């Protein structure tokens, strides 16, 4: 189990570093759009800094395979979300991003909610599921795969409306969180099928991972370029964690806590995270207008 905790903490470092490097690289590029995926890929693949960030993210996915083989899904999500603290420190230090007081309160409440989920764990009774029925996996994943791009494209259309206030990117983050939630379940499924390549290829997990990886790559770059990484990633991580912890626990038959206190903590933590997510601000405050230049005073004329 300790190997799983160490791998989860390593994944946190890799994910936070990867997102910040990609955001920094995107800040030097022309505007990218999901409507021009070939141009987007050409721009990002020409940036060594972006490639470094993407390699860090890929290594984070590799670390997840170890995590899901040694920890229950809910426990893993609680540790993953703790990485938001490192992300906020890096985004402030390297990108100069600042969050509002309301956003800091919301992120703090999200962390508190997921601490409740972690406290609901019991090493003595928690089980680690190895596989899930394919029809059940598809029943869970296909609606999320449809909802993610729909939410994203709806947010894109709204952003083009004239006189619309600047968006914080919450809608983009929710859409990405659903895609990455499916990715997380696919990684969990693959972690139990590492006995041979044919065993893995006969499951839906590699194909779900390829689909979410391709769409997540294109959608995340446009979102990261337009919005603050210090808001996009926490919201995306929350959606991914809640999706994976709740539906993954059910699909992979990892038992819920039998103790009433632990069960209450898990349910209350999940509901708190979702409610805080829904209450987060959807728009950035417009930048303050520069003060009008003051006219120089009239020179005093002294009578002779």
UniProtKB/TrEMBL annotation:
The keyword Repressor does not apply. Residues 282-304 are annotated as: Disordered. The chain crosses the membrane at residues 6-22, 43-67, 73-92, 104-124, 136-155, 167-187, 207-224, 231-251. The keyword Transcription regulation does not apply. Keywords: Membrane, Transmembrane, Transmembrane helix. This is Membrane protein. It comes from Streptomyces inusitatus.
């Amino acid at each position: 189990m300790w190997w799983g905790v160490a791998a989860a903490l390593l994944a946190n470092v890799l994910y936070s570093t990867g997102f910040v490097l990609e955001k920094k690289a995107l800040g030097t590029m022309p505007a990218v759009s999901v409507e021009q995926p070939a141009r987007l890929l050409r721009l990002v693949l020409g940036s060594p800094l972006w490639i470094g960030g993407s390699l860090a993210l890929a290594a984070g996915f590799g670390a997840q395979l170890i995590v899901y083989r040694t920890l229950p899904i809910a426990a893993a999500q609680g540790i993953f979300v703790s990485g938001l603290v490192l992300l906020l420190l890096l985004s402030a230090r390297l990108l100069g991003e600042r969050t509002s007081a309301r956003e800091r309160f919301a992120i703090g409440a999200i962390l508190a909610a997921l601490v409740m989920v972690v406290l609901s764990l019991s090493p003595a009774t928690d089980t680690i599921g190895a596989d899930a029925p394919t029809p059940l996996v598809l029943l869970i994943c296909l609606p999320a795969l449809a909802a993610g791009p729909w939410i994203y494209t709806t947010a894109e259309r709204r952003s083009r409306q004239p006189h619309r206030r600047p968006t914080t990117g919450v809608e983009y983050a929710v859409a990405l969180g659903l895609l990455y939630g499916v990715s997380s379940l696919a990684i969990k499924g693959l972690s139990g099928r590492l006995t041979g390549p044919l065993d893995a290829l006969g499951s839906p997990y590699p194909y779900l991972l390829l689909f979410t990886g391709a769409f997540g790559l294109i959608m995340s770059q446009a979102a990261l370029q337009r919005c603050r990484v210090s808001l996009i990633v926490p919201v995306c991580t929350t959606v991914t964690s809640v999706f994976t912890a709740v539906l993954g626990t059910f699909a992979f038959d990892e038992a819920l806590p039998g103790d009433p206190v632990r069960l209450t903590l898990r349910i209350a933590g999940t509901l708190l995270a979702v409610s805080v997510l829904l209450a987060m601000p959807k728009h950035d405050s417009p930048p303050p207008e520069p003060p009008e230049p003051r006219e120089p005073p009239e020179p005093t004329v002294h009578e002779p």
